[in-house]
Design brief:
This protein is 53% helix and 19% strand. By secondary structure, the chain is of the alpha+beta class. It has a six-stranded mixed beta barrel, surrounded by four helices.
Length: 422
């Protein structure tokens, strides 16, 4: 093996220009692979962070009960269709609007904490409300929860661009920047909030303005304390939902299924409610893998072409070596080692260049103006992962050695007499 390695090095150093171009081809392929994969992974991480960072991974809500009136509305009797049924037939509705509620939510919260993978839980009161500012009316989704507890689930404090969220008082709310802009509301202004009925209303101070990057959140969402929301929505001491955050976001569907099977509540998870965004992420994965494969193929074909030319150029030398006793296996190993050295050197060089390039790109700030990722400040959302670098380096080296199989076999099969004659 020492003889083959020395001969391979001799071949590489005898034509340094060709060797440099070949190593450069491998390095460029590695740079292309790492750049594409790191940028796409970074964009995916930003999308997932924006989704899961501002939304609960799982929402637990009560099972809906369907109600119907009977002809005799004077009677106040209620008839259950059957044990365990979700259908309730009533003769008279006491309230004009039935609301989904979770009573005794503290016990439900304690049960939910026993499920593996659940990281944080926030009981919330959520429902439709109306914001009045002068003659302007805005229909919004009102969500109330303990600010510190809710922050562990949806990270609202990261979205606040003015004012506060933690430490919110009972007579304070926070609103999205789009709503504030459209309604002409400034920090510290007081607005009228109407809840489930016109009787459930009050004046509240705008203590914070947030920006989530989504139109629905920035234009149609209002947050306050849980007790304030319970009062406005007529929930009493109950809540409407429990928001959950999980350790592994992409396991949310499995955890939600286990919860729904064990407890008498419905569940929704972010993987289902954001299926369109996830389909886009999967499409990005396909594009990333295809580009990486083409980059590897291009560099492999370049290596194969160079080695084939090298076999032709060194035909007489190969013939002389075989006439002196070199075996087919030794000649095969010479070109295999040569390809391995080219692949390893090019891969390491490409990895070093990629790391330097990506590290520099991560320092470029965003230009002023609208951005799809309002919580981030760099132009290129890049994720540098050690396993990605190791995988790209290994794949490029392996592909280079694989590309050397054909020219190496061709060199090993050369007839020494014909090779010397040329």
């Amino acid at each position: 093996m020492r003889f083959e390695a020395m001969l391979a090095l001799r071949h590489l150093t005898s034509n340094r220009g060709q060797t440099a171009l070949t190593v450069g081809a491998v390095a460029v392929g590695v740079v292309a692979i790492l750049f594409i994969r790191s940028v796409i992974s970074g964009v995916q991480a930003e999308i997932v962070d924006d989704l899961i960072g501002s939304l609960p991974a799982i929402v637990v809500k009560p099972v809906e009960k369907f109600t119907a009136r009977l002809a005799d509305t004077d009677s106040r009797a209620a008839v259950d269709v059957g044990a365990g049924s979700d259908i309730l037939v009533t003769r008279e509705q006491k309230r004009p609007q039935q609301r989904e509620e979770i009573a005794g939510f503290a016990g439900v919260e304690a049960q939910l904490r026993t499920f593996p993978g659940v990281r944080a839980i926030a009981p919330v009161a959520q429902g439709g409300a109306t914001i009045r500012r002068g003659v302007k009316r805005f229909n919004v989704s009102l969500t109330g929860g303990d600010p510190a507890g809710l922050d562990t689930v949806i990270g609202m404090s990261k979205n606040v661009i003015a004012g506060k969220w933690i430490g919110l008082a009972p007579d304070e709310i926070i609103i999205g920047w789009r709503l504030a802009d459209d309604a002409g509301i400034r920090l510290g202004d007081r607005v009228r909030v109407e809840g489930a009925t016109p009787n459930l209303a009050g004046s509240y101070r705008v203590a914070g303005i947030f920006r989530t990057g989504t139109e629905g959140g920035d234009l149609g969402a209002v947050y306050t304390t849980r007790r304030t929301a319970q009062s406005l929505l007529g929930l009493g001491a109950n809540v409407s939902h429990l928001f959950l955050q999980v350790e592994e976001p992409f396991a949310a569907d499995k955890i939600a299924t286990r919860i729904a099977a064990a407890l008498p509540y419905k569940t929704e998870n972010w993987l289902v409610t954001n299926s369109t965004a996830l389909e886009g992420i999967q499409g990005m994965n396909g594009s990333r893998d295809m580009i990486s494969a083409f980059a590897l193929m291009a560099s492999s074909f370049a290596i194969a072409s160079v080695l084939i030319v090298s076999v032709v150029q060194k035909g007489k030398q190969i013939g002389i070596l075989k006439s002196m006793g070199a075996t087919d296996g030794q000649i095969l190993r010479v070109f295999t080692i040569e390809a391995g050295l080219i692949g390893l050197t090019g891969s390491l060089l490409g990895t070093a260049i990629s790391f330097a390039l990506l590290s520099w790109l991560m320092t470029i700030p965003l230009p002023p103006g609208p951005t799809p990722f309002p919580k981030h400040t760099v132009l290129f959302p890049i994720t540098i992962d050690g396993w990605t670098f190791t995988g790209a380096c290994s794949a490029a080296t392996f592909a280079t050695m694989l590309a050397a199989v054909l020219p190496a076999r061709r060199a090993a099969k050369l007839n020494p007499v014909e090779a010397i004659r040329g």
